[in-house]
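Is this the right way to post structure tokens for a design question? Let me know if I should format differently. Anyway, here goes:
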């Protein structure tokens, strides 16, 4: 079930315990313990931070018996950061300041595509927590007596949603608008808006959303006998928007100011012109493996979309000239059939898939999480087979 938008989500709770001891030689040391016993989902990741409370690396915790990666500089502190009460983690991009949640360690900002490591995507609240955590450990090491020093995150969890002063180390996370599981790597993302990159593998979800939701919704209307003209208009509009988002992201490629400005102003109603521009500039062929008659049909439907949207469905001389459709007269109302609407829907999916594939050739997703997901799916299929 979709989570309510922008709902505060409490911390999972638990305790961090610093056990400070002095050995027989008078040398002081500490051990860090993290424990949790609340009846909610929870998880942890860890970062290295310098004693001043600045995160400098992500710790690869691994499994039992597996050593951690070494800290990048001496005297780093291991800081354990727990999830919210749904087992998710908040993240914030240092470049675009976008906030999102996931169920693990991200490598990509879902909004601007910035690559990075988990410690670089900490939220402002998590960074304050890291600073307080390091200050508390330094304070414990400077105490006169040995003993345990506890950071009580249960008190933090209990304070969520309540009015009044908040305890030390307080922070919460916040649900966003679109919870999606990436088809490529199987990981959970909770982002603002509908479209973005998977924060684990870097695959954009635009085609996933179009193939699973947008076009099936249009096909449902077609099958129900809805206005076929409206369905054609909406299918072309969906592709128009789809191309616009990918072109915006292609702006990450260094370009001259003139060329970048041209792409920003580009209109996508002329299919053949857009296809040629994408092919010559980015080597992306949105018409790949399409029959010539299908290309002509799709181009005609793109011109008709303008008529349905701006001319009340009546052809004008400009439509006839631009489209080459001499089968109609000016002022003649255009009509679609169930067959033509379904055909366009299929072609839109094919062109969108071509653009998505070409985009991934330029900005390749991370293969490690996708391959891990493929192995997991294969093992599950083997277990379920008779």
């Amino acid at each position: 079930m979709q989570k309510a938008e922008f709902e505060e989500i409490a911390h999972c709770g638990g305790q961090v315990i610093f056990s400070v001891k002095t050995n027989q030689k008078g040398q002081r040391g500490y051990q860090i313990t993290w424990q949790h016993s609340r009846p909610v989902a929870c998880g942890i990741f860890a970062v290295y931070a310098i004693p001043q409370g600045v995160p400098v690396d992500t710790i690869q915790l691994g499994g039992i018996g597996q050593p951690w990666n070494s800290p990048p500089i001496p005297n780093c502190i291991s800081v354990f950061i727990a999830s919210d009460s749904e087992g998710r983690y908040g993240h914030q991009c240092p470049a675009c300041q976008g906030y999102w949640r996931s169920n693990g360690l991200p490598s990509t900002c879902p909004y601007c595509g910035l690559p990075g490591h988990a410690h670089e995507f900490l939220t402002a609240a998590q960074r304050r927590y890291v600073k307080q955590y390091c200050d508390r450990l330094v304070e414990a090491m400077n105490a006169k007596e040995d003993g345990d020093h506890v950071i009580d995150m249960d008190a933090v969890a209990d304070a969520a949603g309540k009015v009044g002063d908040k305890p030390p180390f307080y922070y919460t996370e916040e649900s966003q608008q679109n919870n999606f599981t990436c088809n490529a790597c199987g990981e959970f993302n909770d982002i603002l808006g509908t479209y973005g990159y998977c924060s684990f593998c870097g695959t954009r979800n635009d085609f996933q959303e179009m193939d699973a939701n947008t076009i099936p919704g249009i096909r449902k209307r077609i099958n129900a006998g809805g206005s076929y003209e409206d369905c054609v208009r909406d299918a072309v509009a969906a592709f128009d928007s789809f191309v616009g988002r990918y072109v915006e992201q292609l702006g990450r490629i260094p370009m001259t100011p003139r060329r970048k400005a041209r792409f920003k102003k580009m209109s996508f109603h002329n299919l053949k012109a857009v296809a040629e521009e994408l092919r010559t500039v980015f080597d992306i062929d949105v018409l790949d493996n399409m029959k010539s008659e299908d290309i002509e049909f799709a181009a005609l439907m793109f011109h008709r979309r303008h008529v349905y949207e701006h001319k009340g469905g009546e052809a004008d001389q400009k439509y006839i000239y631009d489209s080459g459709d001499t089968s109609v007269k000016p002022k003649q109302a255009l009509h679609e059939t169930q067959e033509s609407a379904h055909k366009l829907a299929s072609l839109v999916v094919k062109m969108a898939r071509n653009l998505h594939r070409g985009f991934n050739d330029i900005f390749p997703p991370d293969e490690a999480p996708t391959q891990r997901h493929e192995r997991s799916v294969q093992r599950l299929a083997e277990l379920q087979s008779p």
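Format looks fine. Someone answered above. Worth noting: The mean pLDDT is 95. The radius of gyration is 27 Å.
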